[in-house]
Amino acid sequence: MLKSLFARNGGAKNNNRLGISFDSEHVSVAYAEIDSSGVAIQRCHSEPLKEDYSASVKQALKQVGSPSCPANVALTLEDSTIHKVEKPKVPPEELDGSILFLLKDRLSHSVEDTMVATITYPKDCRHDDHMMAVEVHKSRITQIVDALHAAHVEINAIDLTELNLGDMLEDDDTMTKGLAILMEHSRGVSLLVYRNHELYLIRRINGISDLISCLPAPGNDQMAEMLMLEIQRTFDYYDSLMGQPLPARLYL
Q1: What are the pLDDT digits (tens) for 197-211?
Q2: Between 20 and 30 A from 209 (CA), which of 47, 94, 191, 221?
């Protein structure tokens, strides 16, 4: 059942949506109404997490009016890890098992307590023989799904923040040329590169724990230079090995 939930489109008929995300301390809920003019967020609320996650979910839903509509659950960067792996030459039904075997020495948790899903690289990036493998902690997903079911929330899809960002920025005027986002999270800082609202590249920036430490300041030139060097290395890889033009915009 968990595997079937890890999908981007659940096919729900109700156009209105709840967006739900969990971090280590809060559950955040947004209620959006969707019509021909687009998506409009009507209400949102962040609730501290109690030991009983479902109680926090119920309280957050109450604060946004307890709408009766399906929910899209967005996993945070803390909830998942994306690996680049060589594409196994196996039947589709054996793909997940093969990916787990390939990643067994790189997993954050045991093979038995790990779920994987795959993302195909865009066709024009010279990575036809590779794919992105998304690693998630099965116990964490189970905890989230159980809490939502206990709160009587219908789950439309479980998605990744990394993919949602590409959808949110699809109208950006530089998306066809490419744009990059430098994102801070509890595990550090990551650089994400999109083009035509597809995720091309995600890379954890080594040696950088937060962006504040990289701001120009007396005696702080080394951290700022380290960040710029890591960004340049990422763009060099994107240009030379993926055959893509340099992103036209970088968001912090």
Answers
A1: 899 999 998 888 888
A2: 47
Q: Which residues of the chain have pLDDT under 50?
A: 1-5, 8-11
Residue 38 is part of which domain span?
2-76+143-160
Residues 227, 214 contacting (CB under 8 angstroms):
yes
Q: What is the enclosing helix (H) or strand (E) of 251?
A: strand 249-251
CATH code for position 24: 3.30.420.40
Task: Quote the pTM value.
Answer: 0.82
Q: Residues with Cβ < 8 Å from 51, sequence gap 6 or more?
A: none
Q: What does the alpha-carbon distance between residue 127 and residue 87 come to, in Å, rounded to a whole number?
A: 9
SS (H, E, C) 30-70: EEEEEECCEEEEEEEEEEECCCCHHHHHHHHHHHCCCCCCC
Q: How many domains would you assign to the chain?
A: 3
Rounded Cα distance, 102 and 188, in Å: 25
pLDDT digits (tens, 9 = 90+) for 49-88: 999 999 999 999 999 999 889 999 999 888 899 999 999 9
Q: How many residues does the chain have?
A: 252
